[in-house]
Design goal:
nucleotide-binding; transmembrane helix; membrane; elongated; 1003 residues; Reg_prop; Thrombin, subunit H
Length: 1003
C-alpha cells in the first residue's frame, strides 16, 4: 500500500554571498599515496580511513599514515563494509583475502566464507552492493544486499528477495539504473527505490513495496545520489549544493549542508560528513581528498566599499552600524546612512540615542529623530572615548602638545549635564589618552599610552596605578561580577584588584599580548580578539591563577578555518566589539565584520590518545604497555596518536620521562612526536597528559620503556668483578705475607703438625676419659650389685656342700633336693656371669663400632630364626610386621642385644600364644619397635621399677637378683644409643614393649 507522507525539509540557510568555508586539498603532493580516494569512514576510535588504489590511509586530522606493504598481489582497495561500532571494518582485495581494520591496525585475513563479497545463486555470481561506489553499470554484473529478514538479488531489471527461513522468493520489476545513477539505496537499514516514472521514493520490505514518499530532491533528474551503508549516510548533490538525507520515524528529512561554487560531479565518488567537527570529506577519482570546514562564524563585508573595520555600534537586535553609516547583519549590508568624511576609530551613542562620530578633530552628532539623516557639529573636539549617565557627560579628549611634538596630552572632562556645553571638572594627563571607564559616582579609571590612573572625583586627585613596566592601555572592561580587566598593546592583559595589577599568563604563541578587548558571554567565557586569532578562556580560571600561580591557563584559539576571512582583528578604536540583543557578538577585523553566537560555538577537544607505536632507529615498532628497546638504539621517537579534526593550536599535550633526573613536563609539538636520545639502560615511565575540556581537565597515559643493559652493566657482572678484585687483592696480600713468613712457616709447620697431633690426641683422651669414667661408674655399680647378689648362691652352694660332707646318711629324696638346690644356685650364677660377659663384649665393641646403614627387618628376622625353634616347642608363633624399607645406622651389636633380650623374655614367658614385632617411623624420624606377646605378662611392680630405673639409672639401686640381669642390660644399652623403652600390660595378659629408637641414619 502506497502512502504519501509530507516531506519535511530542514534547511540550514546561509546567505550565498556571505557563506564562508575553508577547503583543504590533499593529494600525492601532500601525503596521499594515490589521487583516487574510493571510500571514507571513521572507526570507533575516531580515526578517518581512506581506500585508494595504492594502499589504505589513516588520517588523524594532522597527518596521513599509509599502509600499502601488504602481502598481496595488488595494493588496490575499493569500498568499506562491516560494523565500525564493533571494531570490524573490512575492505576486499585479492580473491579470498580481506583487509580487516581492527584496533586501529589493518591486517590481512583469510575469511572468504565469513565475510564474502561475492555469492552465487543458480550458477550466477552476485557482488556486494553497499554504497554508490560499489555499484557499476557494466553489463552482466549483478549485485546482492543482505538484511536480517533475507537477501536481495539485483539482476538486470529485477529485484529478487529470498527469505532466510522459508526460502520463499519475491520478484519485483525495477529499473536499477537511470542515467548511470543507481536507483536503489539504503537509509537507516531500510531499502528504498527511486521510481523516476512515478516521481516517488518507494520503500521495500521483503521484496514488496510497502510505502512511497514524495521527495523532490531525490527524484530530481539533476540530483546525484551518494550513499554509504556502513556510514549510514545519504547525500544529494543538486546544483552544486550538498544536502543530507535521513530517514527516521517513517519520514525523510533533507538538510542543506553547503553550497560549493565549483565541483566536478563526474570525479566525485565518496563522501563522509563528520557532524561533530562540522567537516565534509569529498573523495575524488582523480584529484585526491577535499576537506571542507563548515563555518562556525559568519564574516560579512561590503564588496562595494571598505573591508577593514574598527568601531561599530549596535543598531538593533541583529545589526550594527559603522562610522560610515553602513548597516550590517549576518547576511551582509542591509542599509546605508551615508555618514560622510568620518574616521573609523570612534563611535558612541549619547544620552538621547544620537550617534557620535568624528571628522578629523571635530565631532558629528547624527540625530536619532531624523533617522540619522542629519547631524550637528562640535568643533575642535578630538574625542577618544565617551560615556554618560542620567546626569552628566564624561569625555576623554586628546589635545596636541604646545611644544610642537606629534604627541598628545589627555584630558578627562566631566560636564554638568547631558550636553557638551557646561564643563564641571577637568583632569589632565601627560600622555595620549586611550580609554576610560566609570567605576562608580566617585571613581574613574583612565588609560593612556603610558599607564593607568585612578581619578577621585570628589577630592580632585589622580593616582597612578603602579606597574612593573610602562603599559600602553588598549581597553578597560568591567565584567559582570565587577572585576576590572585591562588590555594593553604588546604587554598582555591584567586584572585590577585593590589598586594592584595582576598580569595574566600568555598563550603559547604570545598572541594574546596584544588584546583588543574582552567580551563576556553568559557562560562566563571571555572572548579576546587579537592580531592573530580569537581566543576564549573562562574567567574563573583567570581568577584562580591570581590566587595560585601554579594554575595553568589554557586559551582556546579560533582561526580562519572557523570561518574568518583573516586571523587579524582590529583594535585602536573606542569600541572593539559589540554584543547584540539577539545574543550575537560582532568583532571588527582586517577583512570584514565577524558575527557569531558565543553560546553556539563549540570547543573541540580530543577525547582519546593512543601511544602504541614508536620509531626506533628509523624502524617502526608497535607495542602495548611496554616498549622494549636495545641500549644500542640512539634515538626513539614516540608517537602520540590523537584523532582530532579541529584547530591543532588547541591540542595541549605534555609529556615527561620518569626515571631521569629533573624530569619535567615538556610540550609535545604539532607533529605529536616525542623524541628521546641516548637513554641509559634501566626502566623508565613515559607519561603523557592531554587537555580535554575548557575547565582544565586532563587525561593521562603511561607506558613503560625498558632498556636492557649490556652484560657488563648487569648487577651480576659488577658483583663478579668486585669479587674478582677482592680475590686478587686477597691473593696479593696473601702472597706478600707468605713471602715474608716463608722461613718461619717451614719451622712452624713441624710444630703445627705436632701440636695438631697432640691436640687431637688430647681431645680423644679427654673424650675417652669421660667415656671410661662413665663406664667405670656404671661397671662399679653393676659389679657391686652383682657381687652382692652372687654372694648368696655361692654361700648357699658352700653350705650345702659342707652339709653333705658332714652328713653320713643320704636318702635319695634328700640327695635330689640338695642337688637341685646346688643346680639352681649354680645355674643362677652361670646366668649372671654369662650376661656379664655379654655386656662386656657389647661395650668393648661399641667404642669402635662404625656400623654401615643396614635394614632393621634383616636383624629382626635373624633373631626370629634364632628363637623360632624354642617358640615352636612352646606352641608359640613369632610374627614380623616390619617394613623392609626401614634402614638405620644404630650400633648393630647393641640393637641386636636389645632385641635378643626382649625376644628371649617374650619366648620364655609365652606358651600357646603369639609374639608380634611391629616397626614404623614417626614424624620426627624415630623408629618405633613394638614387641607384643600374649604370655604371662610383667606385673605392675616390675613395670614401675623399670620405668623409674630408666628415668634415673645413674642413681637408682639395681635389683639384679630380684629381677634378673636381662632388662637391666637392655636399659644400659638403650642409654648408650640415647633411646628408651616403654612397658605396658597387654589387654590379653601379655606385655607390650615399645622401643623408641633415635635413628642415626641421617646424622
Amino acid at each position: 500500500m502506497h502512502k504519501n507522507i509530507l516531506l519535511i525539509f530542514i534547511f540550514i540557510f546561509f546567505n550565498v554571498s556571505s557563506q564562508k568555508y575553508n577547503i583543504e586539498l590533499y593529494n600525492t603532493d601532500s601525503g596521499l599515496p594515490q589521487n583516487s580516494v574510493k571510500d571514507i569512514i571513521k572507526d570507533k576510535y575516531g580515526f578517518i580511513w581512506l581506500t585508494t588504489e595504492n594502499g589504505i590511509v589513516r588520517y588523524d586530522g594532522n597527518q596521513f599514515q599509509v599502509y600499502k606493504n601488504f602481502p598481496l598481489n595488488s595494493q588496490r582497495f575499493t569500498y568499506f563494509y562491516g560494523h565500525p561500532e564493533k571494531d570490524s571494518i573490512f575492505t576486499a582485495c585479492d580473491y579470498g583475502r580481506i583487509i580487516l581494520l581492527h584496533k586501529k591496525i589493518p591486517k590481512v585475513i583469510n575469511s572468504e566464507k565469513r565475510f564474502p563479497t561475492l555469492v552465487s545463486k543458480e550458477h550466477v555470481n552476485y557482488l556486494l552492493y553497499c554504497s554508490n561506489y560499489s555499484y557499476t553499470t557494466y553489463p552482466g554484473i549483478n549485485f546482492y544486499l543482505n538484511f536480517k529478514e533475507g537477501r536481495y538479488y539485483i539482476k538486470e531489471n529485477t529485484l529478487t528477495f529470498s527469505d532466510n527461513r522459508s526460502k520463499a522468493e519475491e520478484n519485483l520489476k525495477i529499473k536499477a539504473i537511470y542515467k548511470n545513477i543507481p536507483r536503489i539505496f539504503i537509509a537507516n537499514e531500510m531499502l528504498f527505490y527511486i521510481n523516476f516514472t512515478t516521481k516517488k521514493v518507494e520503500k521495500i520490505e521483503k521484496g514488496k513495496i510497502v510505502n512511497s514518499y514524495n521527495v523532490p530532491l531525490l527524484t530530481d533528474s539533476n540530483s546525484k545520489l551518494f550513499w554509504s551503508r556502513i556510514n549510514n549516510q545519504v547525500f544529494i548533490l543538486n546544483k552544486n549544493t550538498f544536502y543530507m538525507c535521513t530517514y527516521e520515524k517513517e519520514q525523510f528529512s533533507i538538510s542543506k549542508i553547503i553550497q560549493i561554487d565549483k565541483i566536478k560531479n563526474n570525479n566525485l565518488i565518496s563522501i563522509y560528513y563528520d557532524k561533530w567537527y562540522q567537516k565534509f570529506y569529498l573523495g575524488s577519482s582523480t584529484e585526491g581528498l577535499q576537506i571542507i570546514h563548515l563555518p562556525s562564524f559568519v564574516p560579512v563585508k561590503n564588496s562595494q566599499s571598505e573591508s577593514v573595520f574598527y568601531a561599530t555600534l549596535p543598531l538593533d537586535s541583529s545589526s550594527v552600524i559603522n562610522p560610515y553609516g553602513n548597516v550590517y547583519t549576518r547576511n551582509g549590508v542591509i542599509g546605508n546612512k551615508n555618514f560622510k568624511n568620518t574616521v573609523p576609530f570612534f563611535m558612541a551613542y549619547d544620552y538621547y540615542g544620537n550617534i557620535i562620530v568624528r571628522k578629523d578633530d571635530d565631532l558629528k552628532i547624527y540625530q536619532k529623530t531624523t533617522l540619522y539623516n542629519s547631524f550637528t557639529s562640535v568643533k575642535n573636539f578630538f574625542l577618544k572615548d565617551f560615556v554618560f549617565d542620567t546626569k552628566r557627560y564624561y569625555t576623554l579628549v586628546a589635545k596636541r602638545k604646545k611644544d610642537g611634538t606629534p604627541e598628545f596630552n589627555g584630558v578627562l572632562q566631566i560636564y554638568n549635564d547631558t550636553s557638551f556645553s557646561s564643563e564641571k571638572k577637568e583632569f589632565l594627563f601627560d600622555s595620549e589618552p586611550t580609554k576610560f571607564i566609570k567605576l562608580d559616582q566617585d571613581h574613574i579609571l583612565v588609560g593612556t599610552v603610558k599607564g593607568l590612573y585612578n581619578v577621585h572625583i570628589k577630592t580632585n586627585t589622580v593616582y597612578n596605578i603602579p606597574a612593573n613596566q610602562e603599559l600602553s592601555i588598549r581597553n578597560i572592561i568591567q565584567s559582570k561580577d565587577g572585576n576590572v580587566w585591562i588590555t594593553t598593546l604588546g604587554k598582555g592583559f591584567y586584572l585590577l584588584k585593590n589598586n594592584q595589577l595582576f598580569k595574566m599568563p600568555s598563550d603559547r604563541d604570545n598572541n594574546i599580548s596584544s588584546s583588543h578587548t574582552i567580551l563576556e558571554d553568559a557562560k562566563g567565557f571571555f572572548w579576546i580578539p587579537t592580531n592573530n586569532g580569537l581566543y576564549r578562556v573562562l574567567e574563573r580560571q583567570l581568577l584562580k591563577y591570581v590566587q595560585n600561580k601554579d594554575v595553568k591557563i589554557n586559551y582556546y584559539r579560533f582561526s580562519k578555518d572557523s570561518g574568518f576571512n583573516t586571523n587579524e582583528f582590529n583594535g585602536g578604536s573606542n569600541v572593539c566589539g559589540n554584543q547584540l540583543a539577539n545574543g550575537d557578538f560582532v568583532i571588527p577585523s582586517l577583512d570584514g565584520l565577524v558575527f557569531f553566537d558565543p553560546l553556539k560555538i563549540k570547543s573541540y577537544y580530543p577525547n582519546h590518545m593512543y601511544i602504541e607505536r614508536a620509531l626506533v632507529d628509523n624502524k617502526e615498532q608497535y607495542f602495548k604497555n611496554d616498549l622494549h628497546v636495545e641500549q644500542k638504539s640512539s634515538r626513539i621517537d614516540l608517537f602520540i596518536d590523537v584523532p582530532y579534526y579541529a584547530n591543532p593550536d588547541n591540542i595541549v599535550i605534555e609529556a615527561k620521562i620518569m626515571g631521569l633526573e629533573n624530569a619535567k613536563w615538556e610540550s609535545v609539538g604539532k607533529s605529536r612526536k616525542f623524541s628521546i636520545s641516548n637513554l641509559g639502560y634501566g626502566n623508565y615511565s613515559f607519561i603523557v597528559k592531554m587537555l580535554v575540556s575548557d575547565d582544565g581537565k586532563y587525561i593521562y597515559k603511561k607506558i613503560n620503556i625498558i632498556i636492557k643493559p649490556y652484560f657488563y652493566q648487569t648487577i651480576g657482572f659488577k658483583t663478579l668483578i668486585v669479587a674478582l678484585l677482592l680475590l686478587l687483592l686477597y691473593l696479593i696480600v696473601k702472597w706478600r705475607i707468605n713471602f715474608l713468613q716463608r722461613k718461619n712457616l717451614e719451622l712452624e709447620e713441624v710444630i703445627n703438625v705436632r701440636t695438631k697431633s697432640l691436640s687431637t690426641t688430647v681431645e680423644k683422651l679427654e673424650a675417652t676419659k669421660i667415656q671410661l669414667h662413665k663406664e667405670i661408674e656404671q661397671q662399679k655399680k653393676l659389679i657391686g650389685t652383682i657381687t652382692h647378689d652372687i654372694t648368696t648362691p655361692v654361700k648357699f652352694i658352700a653350705i650345702t656342700a659342707e652339709e653333705m660332707l658332714k652328713s653320713k646318711e643320704f636318702n635319695q629324696q634328700r640327695t635330689e633336693k640338695v642337688l637341685a638346690s646346688i643346680y639352681k644356685s649354680s645355674d643362677q650364677l652361670y646366668n649372671f656371669t654369662s650376661t656379664l660377659k655379654e655386656y662386656a663384649d657389647i661395650y668393648s665393641h661399641h667404642r669402635s663400632d662404625k656400623t654401615e646403614i643396614y635394614s632393621l627387618y634383616t636383624i629382626i628376622k635373624e633373631k626370629k630364626v634364632l628363637f623360632n625353634t624354642i617358640a615352636e616347642s612352646n606352641n608359640t608363633s613369632i610374627i614380623i610386621n616390619v617394613n623392609e624399607k626401614i634402614d638405620t645406622q644404630i650400633s648393630k651389636n647393641i640393637l641386636a642385644a636389645i632385641i635378643h633380650n626382649l625376644l628371649d623374655n617374650a619366648v620364655k614367658y609365652t606358651r600357646n600364644g603369639t609374639i608380634t614385632i611391629d616397626a614404623k617411623t614417626d614424624k620426627y624420624g624415630n623408629i618405633i619397635v613394638v614387641i607384643d606377646d600374649t604370655g604371662i605378662g610383667m606385673d605392675s611392680q616390675k613395670i614401675e621399677y623399670y620405668t623409674r630405673l630408666q628415668e634415673n639409672i645413674e642413681n637408682e639401686k639395681l635389683l639384679l637378683q630380684k629381677y634378673g640381669m636381662g632388662l637391666h642390660l637392655v636399659l644400659q644399652l638403650l642409654q648408650m644409643i640415647e633411646s628408651k623403652i616403654i612397658f605396658k600390660r597387654n589387654d590379653s595378659g601379655g606385655t607390650i614393649c615399645q622401643l623408641i629408637l633415635k635413628n642415626k641414619k641421617d646424622d
